[in-house]
Amino acid sequence: MREELKKYAWRKFRRYPKTKEITDLRDELWSMMCDKYDDLVAAGVEEREAARQARELMNDCTAALREAELGSSMGALRRMLIGILTFSAAFMLALTGVYLFISIVTLKSFDKTWLLMVAGSFVYVVYVAVKLYAYARSFGFRALTRVAFGGVFLSLVPLLFMLPSLAAHVLYGADIWGKSWLLALIIAAIWLTADMMLFAHGTKAFWWELAGLGFLVTTVVFLAFSVFTGAWNVAWLVYVLYLVVVAFAMYFAELRRRRGE
Amino acid sequence: MTYSGEVLRGHTETIILAILRGGDSYGYEILKRILDAGGGMIDIRDATIYTAFKRMEKEGLITTYWGGEEAGGARRKYYSITDAGREYHERKAREWRELNVILNKLIGGDGE
User: Fold this and answer.
1) Does B3 lie at the interface with A, CB-CB under 8 angstroms?
2) Do B72 and A2 touch (CB under 8 A)?
3) A70 touching B, CB under 8 A?
4) Long-range contacts of residues A89-97, Cβ cutoff 8 Å, at least 24 apart
5) Which residue has the higher pLDDT, B41 or A167?
6) Higher-confidence position of A197 and B102
């Protein structure tokens, strides 16, 4: 059973960099699980149930991992950054190889193939943003997690908005910049919604953030409607609609508060 | 009735140091001694204990060393109190006694 507990501990820690502080914590938790298991079995608890209760020791070790990380002068962060740098070198070499191969061997032209390098760089930016977010989340650094979450969405803007517009222009001569910028606004709206649901829910700022999000969504609707129909003179009515919704929400919130008193 | 570990908030380090003043000990033994002393009325989260260990080690209140291998290869990590830890414990214990006298006067429960 000790071996099973060991496998469990190793599995729980597999996504963390193997710094001395983190492996020490893993080993210590494994030993604590073994002690708890032995103690429960000696008290007459059935083996499987004892193992289940012993595993509970590792249910919430994020705070301890954070302390271990802070105590090691951010050793895991440094390792992750070195990992990113190593990956960067390999990725850029591979990307350059593909670029040269397609330009020289396949298409025999460098005319438009630079788009490959641009696309690869944009994908790389997303990779770095996701890695930073994963790091912050795995160690429970709340503020950094929230910032990095925003960074992931920001990194999607070049990939989902700039690249297709650039590709359409370079490959087909189509100018979609006049409309594609709406994608950036849509990404921002999705980010703010997700951010609010994950990080702001239950906080004092929640209603203010909800109102801000509502304003952004209204602006996206206003711009989308205006750009695609050309009816700018009518589209402003969505702002009136937004204000009406806010007024009703405030009215009902006040009504609810008074009933509660 | 059980009390969550929240009632120990701010005192976890002092409690661990009090245990370590009696001699070196390891994680599970310390956790068990706290739970046993609570007579089943304290439901402290395991994470609270080992987060406190990490914090105290960083602050120099305790030091650690690994014990020999137990059956199956797991090694226990032992904790020892440092001189700084003893001073910290004495100060906190004195504060606790003083505060206890004041709170007994204020809350008391004997109707005075």
Assistant:
1) no
2) yes
3) yes
4) A91/A120, A91/A124, A91/A127, A92/A120, A92/A124, A95/A120, A95/A121
5) A167
6) B102
Q: How far is CA B62 from the centre of its chain?
A: 12
Q: Looking at the complex, does the CB of residue A35 fall below 8 Å from at least one CB of chain B?
A: yes
Domain B3-106 -> CATH class: mainly alpha
Cα dihedral A95, A99, A105, A107 sign:
positive
Chain B residues inside the 8 Å CB shell of A60? 45-47
**pLDDT value, residue A186:** 87
Complex ipTM value: 0.80
Selection from A62, A83, A205 nearest residue A142 by Cα: A62
pLDDT of B6: 61
DSSP one-letter code for A107: S
Do A68 and A22 form a contact (C-beta atoms < 8 A)? Answer: yes
The ranges assigned to domains in chain A are 2-70, 74-201, 203-261
Which residues of chain B does A25 touch, with a Cβ-Cβ cutoff of 8 Å?
A: 50, 54
The answer to whether A97 and A113 are in contact (CB under 8 A) is no
pLDDT band at B67 (very low <50, low <70, confident <90, very high): confident
Who has greater pLDDT, B2 or A232?
A232
Tell if the CB–CB gap between A35 and B29 is shorter than 8 Å: yes
Contact assessment for residue A207 and residue A175, using Cβ atoms and an 8 Å cutoff: no
